[in-house]
Amino acid sequence: MFTENINSIEILRFENLSGYSQITQFISTRKGGVSKPPFDTLNISFKEEDFTVVLENHKRLAHAVNVPVDNFVFCRQVHSGNVAVVTGQQRGAGVYARETALIDTDAMITNEANLCLSVLAADCVPILLYDPAKNAIGAVHSGRKGTVAKILTNTIERMKKEFGTDPEDLKVGIGPSIGSESYEVDTPVIEAFAASFPGNNFIQMKDKTHGTLNLWEANKFLLLTAGVQDHNIEIAGIDTYTNTDKFFSARKDGLTGRFVAGIMLH
Question: Residue 68 in contact with residue 266, Cβ under 8 Å?
Fold first, then answer.
């Protein structure tokens, strides 16, 4: 990834997606907004903070990435495996109120222009997908539960069905999220991953009931299993838990804001 500073707003972009003029893609940080602690400063989520403050952050981010704020599409994320196909009718969902965001959804796909698919995160894994052959995009929120539910697999399968996507054509960016050294989990999580990923070692055991979970490698495994080419996958490798000066981390800070990963076709 590389960083841009635009009007005091710090934006990250994936290297492997940056060469395509057909898309805009970005990940925000916590810098450049108007939120007060503990949401300081570029909080994009309406869930815990005053509406007018978050809306101002939406507008500032939209200006920085040169995307009309009404083109953003948000979803009410519930750590599910659910994927929504977004059309022009959903343009602006969740921009002015959380209640208008797409319900019970953790991934969105589209092949329509001017829809900025936007997923929120603060330790969970934001993932952006682009199919340059079919000119289709996806944005995925894949935390611990979403990874167990294989939401990334569901997203690719839905892109195949809706747009005729060949996974070998997909370019994918796995964004900043909690790193394996920071993410300690206990028996229920260990058992859930053992059931969903038999024979894999995405959890490094520390003792009989605790281990550390590598969500980056688990989601990369899902991509490779779906047919995505290894050289088409970029992992940011940025641990939100140890970089709270730049990113929100719910596990580190408890009550905090959310940053956003977005992708849009022109």
Answer: no
Strands 2-6 and 9-13: antiparallel
Characterise 100 by phi-psi region: left (phi > 0), alpha (psi -120 to 50), beta (else). Answer: alpha
pLDDT in tens, 169-201: 999 999 999 999 999 999 999 999 999 999 898
What angle do helix axes 215-226 and 151-163 make, rounded to 10 degrees? Answer: 30
Question: For 2-178+226-265, CATH number?
Answer: 3.60.140.10
Residues 6 or more apart from 219 whose CB is under 8 A from it? 125, 127, 142, 147, 152, 174
Task: Supply the pTM of this predicted model.
Answer: 0.98
Joined tokens for residue 184: 């300690």
- Give domain limits for the chain: 2-178+226-265
